[in-house]
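Reminder to self: tokens first, then the designed residues, so the page reads top to bottom the way the pipeline ran.
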């Protein structure tokens, strides 16, 4: 695991996290803006002329720009990912993309003017630390640059069946569970896209003509578009906190399996099983903690934090009153 591989993978993770946040903002429906929680009689408040988000949330123009910016960042992430796969193994590059969880929290908090709670931070850190511990202990081998042609058929059947089952399950659930299931389905396809992309990068020395004639070049585009479509469905089904963990962790674990099945990448066993098990335990603990976070069933990424409202003090001067918290808004007044 060389430094260039790590740098390129982290760059791809950062771009992918920013794209996820922007595309979630572009998917916001009317009524998900500031006006849902703020009064409308303050000309300087969220509904005033200086507000970026109007009574129905971001304007159509802002949503379109967010979507285009997110699509551009996804393209940049794909380029960085391809470069990382060209110099590193699938089992190393894809798990490193789990760091996008931390980038997503930082970028999402800035865009939606919300800071995730401590439980959310600890859960995400546990997931990232578990992946890092597992990856460090497993020490995946480099494997082959290209896969044997005979291995693609059973892998394609397995991936197709997994995505089909997840798509069927998603039809019977709603809200956060639906977003998580669709996120996992898109993760499987993104992992398959990464495997195909690694095959393409491995065949680059053969020249442009050979790439144009090989089926994996076109399969990469088709699988990537399908994964992108499922990702949009996951964003519309629920919040980032519900879909992003399944997306990132599913991608990492599926890629590790595909690296072994296609390119002969192996992980260390024996005495390293103990730290690997500890890493898996951290991943499980982070997943359970995340499932209990209030953000999973809320809309912290869809409803920006209310801005402080100016109030008149005893001396007649206008001061900013602290914004009401969820707990104070939910507490009924005593008679």
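Designed residues (335 positions):
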């Amino acid at each position: 695991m060389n430094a260039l591989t790590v740098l390129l993978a982290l760059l791809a993770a950062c771009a992918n996290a920013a794209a996820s946040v922007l595309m979630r903002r572009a998917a916001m429906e009317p009524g998900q803006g500031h006006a849902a929680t703020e009064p409308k009689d303050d000309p300087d408040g969220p509904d005033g002329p200086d507000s970026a988000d109007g009574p129905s949330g971001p304007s159509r123009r802002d949503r379109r720009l967010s979507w285009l910016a997110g699509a551009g960042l996804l393209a940049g992430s794909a380029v960085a990912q391809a470069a990382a796969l060209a110099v590193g193994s699938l089992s190393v590059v894809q798990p490193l993309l789990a760091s996008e969880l931390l980038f997503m929290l930082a970028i999402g908090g800035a865009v939606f003017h919300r800071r995730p709670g401590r439980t959310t931070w600890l859960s995400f850190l546990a997931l990232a630390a578990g992946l890092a511990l597992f990856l460090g202990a497993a020490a995946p081998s480099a494997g082959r640059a290209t896969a044997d042609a005979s291995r693609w058929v059973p892998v394609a059947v397995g991936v197709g069946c997994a995505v089909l089952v997840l798509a069927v399950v998603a039809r019977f659930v709603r809200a956060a569970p639906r977003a998580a299931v669709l996120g996992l389905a898109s993760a499987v396809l993104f992992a398959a896209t990464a495997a195909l992309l690694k095959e393409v990068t491995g065949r680059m020395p053969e020249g442009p003509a050979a790439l144009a004639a090989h089926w994996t070049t076109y399969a990469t585009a088709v699988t990537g578009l399908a994964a992108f479509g499922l990702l949009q469905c996951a964003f519309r089904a629920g919040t980032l906190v519900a879909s992003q963990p399944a997306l990132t962790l599913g991608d990492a674990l599926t890629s590790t399996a595909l690296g072994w099945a296609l390119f002969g990448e192996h992980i260390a066993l024996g005495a390293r099983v103990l730290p690997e098990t500890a890493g898996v335990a951290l991943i499980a603990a982070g997943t359970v903690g995340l499932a209990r976070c209030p953000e999973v069933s809320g809309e912290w990424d869809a409803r920006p934090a209310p801005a402080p409202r100016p109030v008149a003090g005893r001396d007649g001067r206008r001061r900013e009153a602290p914004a009401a918290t969820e707990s104070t808004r939910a507490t009924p007044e005593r008679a």
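The longest helix spans residues 60-87.
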